[in-house]
Design goal:
Blueprint lengths: L10 H7 L9 H4 L14 E4 L19 H9 L1 H12 L6 H7 L3 E7 L10 E4 L1 E6 H13 L6 E9 L3 H15 L13 H7 L3 E5 L10 E2 L4 E2 L6 H14 L7 E3 L6 H6 L5 H18 L11 E4 L7 H7 L7 H9 L1
Parallel strand pairs: 1-2, 1-10, 2-5, 5-6, 6-7, 8-9, 9-10
Antiparallel strand pairs: 2-3, 3-4
Organism: Ataeniobius toweri
InterPro entries: PI-PLC_domain (IPR051057), PLC-like_Pdiesterase_TIM-brl (IPR017946), PLCXD1/2/3 (IPR042158), PLipase_C_PInositol-sp_X_dom (IPR000909)
Protein name: Phosphatidylinositol-specific phospholipase C X domain-containing protein
Length: about 325
Amino acid sequence: MTDCKTGCSDPLLADRRLNMDVSNRDWMSALPEELWDIPLTELAIPGSHDAMSYCLDINSPLLGSESDVFRLLDKLFYCFTRPIIFKWATTQDKSIEEQLSKGIRFFDLRVAHKPNDLSDDLYFTHIVYTHLTVLKTLECVAYWLNSHPKEVVILACSHFEGMDDERHELFISCLKKLFGSKLCPRKESVLSLRSLWASGYQVILSYDSQLVARHPQLWPAIPYWWANKKTAQEVINYLDWNKDLGRPEGFFVSGLNLTAPRAYIAKNPKESLRTLTFSNWECLRKWVEEQKPGSDPNSLNIIAGDFVGPLPLCSLVIALNHKLRPKSSTQMRKQY
């Protein structure tokens, strides 16, 4: 039997192999019944920023969208730039199947076609390309969902560097074939867990392209609040500012991910995105615990972050949903 790196043929066996905390593996089906009729857009959902950066190919070319200056530096000082790129472009250290089992239900997936590649293979990206191809990875997601029939995932595909309309249509056709009846159409008026379970829908596929209009199985791009700041307090200030403006309609993401400018990276050669994230975690954790989901203008929906495996983001975000329970239910639970 094989795992996700080569294709999943037995998801149950793969699940047993993983040495991890399984408490959030089926958290949606474990929610109290009084939350089953709340729309997913009003639940608190844990998300993974740049979900596939755990398998970056350090020897792959830079994305064409990187600046000419950066590309020149990388060409001249390859042995120096590549370790730095790897340290700061890696935002996750767990496989997508492990992230699913940890409780992640929103995946930020940046898709691209490599330049001068004659094949139809697509890869994920973050400054460079990944080892794993897109379809092989998403096959693992489909297998995992087969063994967790009441879990619903939101796959947000974006960027699409190097893809023309023909490649888009081929990719979309493959996605439809792969997920089939699991795909929730965007016209679905009731997005509660109870309704989705009844229809067998498990995948909400967001596709950041105008081609969405041609395909009823695709959802438009989901707004992502990205602070582009390097400290927790700056990120929190940005998120609070957006909250004061009122939540968007539908799904939206509050990004906890930190971003270090290149000047900071150059001055701090011993640091990495991992060390920066961990050193700021306590402040971010306290902020997350104070948040609430729901329909109020200042409520949150998807909360995404980096290193969702070692950091307890999933449990923190999932726990926020209990704030939606009627007070009578929570008081009764405390009594017992």
